[in-house]
Amino acid sequence: MQYAEYRKNDVEQRIVQMGAYPLDVMLVGATGSGKSSTINCLTGSRLAKTSGGADPETMDIQSYTMNRYFRLWDTPGLGDSPDQDQRHLQKMRQLLGRKYKTNDTEYRLIDLAMLILDGGQRDLLSAVKVLNELIIPVLGADRVILAVNQADRAMKGRYWDRNNQSAAPELKSFLERQTMELHQRLQNCTGHPLPVPICYSATAQFRISDLLDQIIQHVPKQRQAVQLPQTSFSLRGFRLPFPD
């Protein structure tokens, strides 16, 4: 499937309502969670370097255009060391701080943050930290999307149908339980209502349309205007107002 064309009319209507394009989505997650492979799957390219393991490939913030309506921002992976995490969190903080200006109003560049979790990961410390200390204080909990990647590797891959690239009933039940458990744990740890995570696999292109449905559902009804000090840096002309 060409995901760039998925629900094109719905996307356009929501972007028109928001008032500017593209929608800017920041992807955040631990090293090896599959941020880059998700971007490659959605854009239909191999532009984002993937690690294929635990070693990080993305060390700097990079953006990738999916179509005229979506721009995805890849960020460095978390969880390798406390020192590296602090450096990476500072880069993400700078990205969340970027603004642009149209019609004498300053707006935040990043519209949504997608937190990608590794389906086999039980330690949520990095996820909770980035939600509580970075994303929610800046964007708010209503602009967060939760996603669980690598569904095909869950249960050690025993119930993954490789011929049809789909989950057997045993795996589907496991993924549903895992998703609800993660959802409850993250809500308890953040103290905020959060969306139910989408379980998917970027490499197997499993439930990618469900992931896109979640993004489309969370397109904000309006851009996030901000009050800036006179010395703040803004990206003029970096985004385009949608024509009336």
Topology:
Blueprint: H1 8-18, E1 20-21, E2 23-29, H2 35-43, E3 62-65, E4 70-74, H3 82-96, E5 99-102, E6 105-108, E7 112-118, H4 125-139, E8 144-149, E9 160-161, E10 166-167, H5 169-190, E11 198-199, H6 208-217, E12 240-241
Parallel strand pairs: 2-4, 2-7, 7-8, 8-11
Antiparallel strand pairs: 1-12, 3-4, 5-6, 9-10
Helix pairs in contact: 3-4
Architecture overview:
The chain has 244 residues and is an alpha/beta fold. The chain has 6 helices and 12 strands. It has helices spanning 8-18, 35-43, 82-96, 125-139, 169-190, 208-217, and strands at 20-21, 23-29, 62-65, 70-74, 99-102, 105-108, 112-118, 144-149, 160-161, 166-167, 198-199, 240-241. The longest helix has 22 residues, at 169-190. The protein is globular and about 55 Å long. The model is unreliable at 52-56 and 228-237 (pLDDT under 50).
Number of helices: 6
Shape: globular
N→C terminal distance: 31 Å
H and E order: HEEHEEHEEEHEEEHEHE
The share of residues in helices is 25-40%
The percent range for strand residues is: 15-25%
Rg result: 18 Å
**Strands, count:** 12
Helix-strand makeup class: alpha/beta
- State mean pLDDT (0 to 100 scale): 87
Low-confidence stretches: 52-56, 228-237
Spatial order of the strands in the main sheet? 3-4-2-7-8-11
Largest sheet: 6 strands, mixed
